[in-house]
Amino acid sequence: MIHWNIAALVGVPGVGKTSLCISAAGVLGYRYVNYGELMLDVAKSRNLATNRDEMFNLSIEVQEYLWKTAAIKIKDMQVSSNKILVDLHGVDRSNIGYIISLPIGIISPDIIIVVESSYENIIQRRKSDKFRERKLDNLESITEYMNILRMSMVAYSVIYGSHLTLLENDDFEKCLNELIKVLSESY
User: Fold this and answer.
1) Which pTM does this prediction carry?
2) Strand 111-116 to strand 6-10: parallel, antiparallel, or no bridges (unpaired)?
3) Which of 23, 68, 97, 110 could form a disulfide with 4 if both were Cys (CB 3.0 to 4.6 A apart)?
4) Region 38-50: what's the mean pLDDT?
């Protein structure tokens, strides 16, 4: 068994990580944190952005400030929460390339769960998102993004001693049950 306080569920946009996190946190009674929403809350409180598109068009320096501030808020949550399930991309694309968005040096997840899915399912989820318009990348772009994410999380887990699990989300219920098993078999 693995002792953990913070588990990071990472994946490319549209892989289903938010739905999985919300469901698993509800079943297990864990605290759920959407890292992007927390960053946006910080941006809104500082009058820097009103939505994610505005936030991700801010300078890299301002985004880094939001990223660090949100990470510090999660670190502070550890005082009052036993188990925190953090929903984030893990790696983000920007106009300068890929950026690791796991808050290295501020919080260190004990478990990293990389969620992957087929191209067709990712595109379908992006098309059916009722809350925001998502980019419909081509197969090569999504494959590259998933490979960069996987390699980055493998390297992170080796350097920081985090347990790493890969989950395939082409069947939501099956993936949710696997996620619950991973989280509940650890203490």
Assistant:
1) 0.91
2) parallel
3) 110
4) 96
CB distance 13 to 121 below 8 Å: no
> What is the 8-class DSSP label of residue 131?
S
Both tokens assigned to 111: 């478990």
The closest of 101, 85, 110, 102 to 22, measured between CA atoms, is 85
Cβ atoms of residues 7 and 74 within 8 Å: no
CB proximity list for 124: less than 8 A, separation 6 or greater: none
Model confidence pLDDT, tens digit, residues 63-79: 889 999 999 999 999 87
d(CA 141, CA 151): 15
Kind and range of the H or E element at 145?
Answer: helix 139-160
- DSSP per position, 61-91: HHHHHHHHHHHHHHHHHTTT-S-EEEEE-SE
Q: Residue type at 67?
A: W
Query: What are the Cα distances from residue 115, in Å, to 4, 20, 69?
Result: 19, 9, 25
Query: What is the share, in percent, of the chain residues with pLDDT greater than 90?
Result: 67
Identify the DSSP state of 170: S
